[in-house]
Design brief:
This protein is an alpha+beta fold. Helices cover 22% and strands 12% of the residues.
């Protein structure tokens, strides 16, 4: 079979020009585009044909993360396909990457799983990566989050440059794992799963985040980022605490997850994953990971190329990819490739090397992979819902009020609405670093009461979808942690009194791999997973035998191995801890009544919007975290850009 790859090389000036984006289209053209089932089928065929390998799993999701299609190629190991639990876990690897492409991008900025890894620099341990989500027994040494991420301690930006600070999305991998069943108050944070644990301790939720459906407007129901296992359950079964449930693998940050655009409009994401024999992300042998073997090919690069080929390449990057094994590219599908800078550093989007990334990726593919020689019909499409459909059409992402303002414990409807409205007003004034010049931020804002009940949730048009889960969790985190009546002794920071107003920025600072932030040769922060036994503090690799789940007692480690908890607080109103900025507790007359979470186009922007949203409801100044020290280091509270509206 002849190669059908035909790169078009354009001038450098064209390659760095701003993308043709949906916001530049006339309003009449901006009807919500969604993927059709036929388009999903074509994308899966093109992915299978993109290279000569035959052992990948490909997933397609819409912008909200709904699973639309999965292809398991014919050469995937029998060690995966022959074990129902490992099979579902491996499919979750592809889903996590697809959701990254869909969740973080917008009509104005295409962000990939490679980009998100570049701007997160999380601490990811080998024990976290080489673990199975379907095992939750505290004594298990192979149960865990199964992150689809490179192993390493992170903590520097640019990556690998000594004594540089942390970047935006620390521990992003651990977010967006919420389900419709949570560990209950007596569970110890352990969710029953098919491979371990005990039933009877879980609680079913009435909807995503346990939100009362009476306050969810028609047509704006929220989609939980479920695992493949739970996706195949009926709506009633997904909420049934008597049944086994499996959490998703979080946000994938290995290369292989790309957004899908039609006519310049974001319509979904594609994820390509090579599960090997175990389904672990380490099977891909990524150059980004501390366990990389230079004598073997980097399969994450192949995954990334396959995803790029499936969606037709990128005209703006100079690499359009036509028919593959007779399967034509979808009309109007093209990946925008604008230059995206963060604090003066050009981000990697497709391939390594900033604006040279696509060329570097294609060169690698031409050297190691047989381009365009795969079988478009290899393997089989898998069922993607309880009705046994194999291809589904996508749905648009809801915007506006996702949860209408209403009163909670100690806080009124008017107060909830005022806080969110103030935040929206500031977001519309605040410059977004990752969007085109002159563009303001797009945010998601959430308010909860002290119990963690969501009282108001608003998504600005085109705000990234990942921010829905993040904003809710941020609000819940501070509503619990800053409340002296709720904070458990196991979670309290030594030397800092209960009732101190910590924020998500404070949480991140305490969980970083170096304390103070970014300074080489310094020890891990007090909440870092590197304080737990069994991990090399310089590499993230295992030291000795893998530790059981019960050994992870640090704030960061406990959160990773116990999805959908709120520190050590368990129950229906918990959705994990977020370790990057954009939150504040809510106070009325000096007393804490809830939490505010803000998430969108950058964490410094999140802090700016938070500060203005909370005006009139902020913590008393003498309770701010930056009035206190830990280990002789002043704790951070909020931080602003010098000219956030410039």
């Amino acid at each position: 079979m002849s190669k059908t790859y035909r790169p078009r090389v354009e001038s450098l000036e064209v390659r760095i020009a701003p993308a043709f984006i949906a916001s530049q289209l006339p309003a009449a053209v901006q009807a919500p585009l969604t993927l059709t089932a036929a388009q999903v089928g074509t994308l899966l065929q093109r992915a299978a044909a993109a290279t000569g390998s035959d052992d990948a799993i490909i997933a397609i999701v819409d912008r909200t993360g709904n699973l639309l299609g999965v292809r398991v190629e014919g050469g995937v190991s029998a060690a995966v396909t022959g074990n129902v639990n490992v099979f579902g876990f491996s499919i979750d690897g592809a889903i996590s990457l697809a959701r990254t492409g869909a969740f973080f991008s917008s009509d104005q900025d295409p962000l990939t799983s490679r980009t998100i890894q570049f701007i997160s620099q999380s601490t990811i341990t080998q024990r976290e990566v080489n673990s199975y989500t379907f095992i939750s027994s505290p004594s298990s040494t192979i149960g865990g989050p199964g992150f689809v991420a490179p192993i390493g301690i992170g903590g520097h930006f640019p990556p690998g440059v000594a004594n540089t600070p942390q970047v935006d999305l620390f521990d992003i991998e651990n977010t967006n794992r919420d389900m419709l069943v949570n560990p209950g108050p007596s569970s110890g944070g352990v969710l029953f799963t098919p491979g371990g644990g005990s039933p009877g301790f879980d609680v079913g939720l009435v909807g995503r985040f346990n939100i009362n459906p009476a306050f969810v407007p028609a047509g704006k129901s929220l989609v939980a980022p479920l695992s493949y296992y739970d996706t195949l359950l009926t709506s009633a079964q997904r909420k049934d605490p008597s049944l086994p449930h499996v959490p998703a693998r979080g946000i994938g940050t290995l290369p292989g997850g790309l957004p899908i655009y039609e006519g310049g409009v974001l319509v979904g994401g594609i994820g390509v994953f090579f599960p090997g024999k175990t389904g672990f992300a380490s099977e891909e042998n990524s150059k980004l990971s501390a366990d990389f073997n230079p004598n073997k090919v980097d399969r994450s690069m192949e995954a990334e190329f396959i995803a790029l080929a499936a969606i037709g390449g990128s005209k703006q990057a100079g690499f359009q990819i036509g028919a593959l094994a007779g399967i034509p590219a979808l009309k109007g599908f093209d990946l925008p490739f604008p230059r995206i800078d963060l604090v003066g550093i050009t981000l990697d989007t497709v391939g390594p090397g900033g604006m040279q990334g696509p060329q570097n990726l294609v060169n690698y593919a031409q050297t190691f992979f047989s381009i365009g020689t795969g079988n478009p019909n290899s393997g089989a499409n898998q069922i993607v819902n309880s009705a046994a459909a194999t291809l589904r059409a996508g749905k648009p992402a809801p915007a506006g009020w996702l949860v209408t303002p209403h009163a909670g414990v100690g806080i009124t409807t008017v107060q909830v609405q005022q806080i969110i409205t103030q935040g929206i007003a500031q977001a519309n004034k605040t410059r977004a670093q990752i969007r085109p010049l002159g563009t303001t931020t797009r945010m998601v804002l959430a308010v909860t009461d002290r119990t963690g009940a969501v009282l108001g949730l608003y998504r600005m048009p085109d705000a990234p979808v990942f921010s829905i889960g993040v904003a809710v969790s941020k609000a819940r985190n501070v509503a619990y942690y800053d409340d002296p009546a709720q904070l458990l002794a196991v979670d309290q920071l030594a030397g800092v009194p209960t009732g101190t107003a910590l924020t998500a920025r404070t949480f991140r600072y305490l969980a970083l791999p170096r304390f103070p932030e970014g300074i080489n040769q310094k020890p891990p922060g007090p909440w870092s997973i590197l304080n737990d036994n069994g991990t090399d503090r310089n590499t993230g690799l295992n030291v000795g035998s893998p530790q059981p789940i019960s050994a992870f007692k640090s704030v960061f480690g406990f959160d990773a191995f116990h999805p959908n908890t709120n520190f050590h607080r368990f129950g229906a109103n918990a959705s994990g801890v977020v370790f990057f900025p954009g939150s504040s507790a809510v106070y009325v007359n000096g007393k804490i009544v809830g939490g505010l979470g803000v998430s969108g186009d950058g964490v410094d922007e999140d802090d700016v919007v938070t500060a203005l949203a909370i005006a009139g409801y902020e913590a008393p100044t003498n309770r701010h975290a930056d009035y206190y020290f830990f280990g002789g280091v002043r704790l951070p509270y909020l931080k602003f850009n010098r000219n956030p509206q410039g």
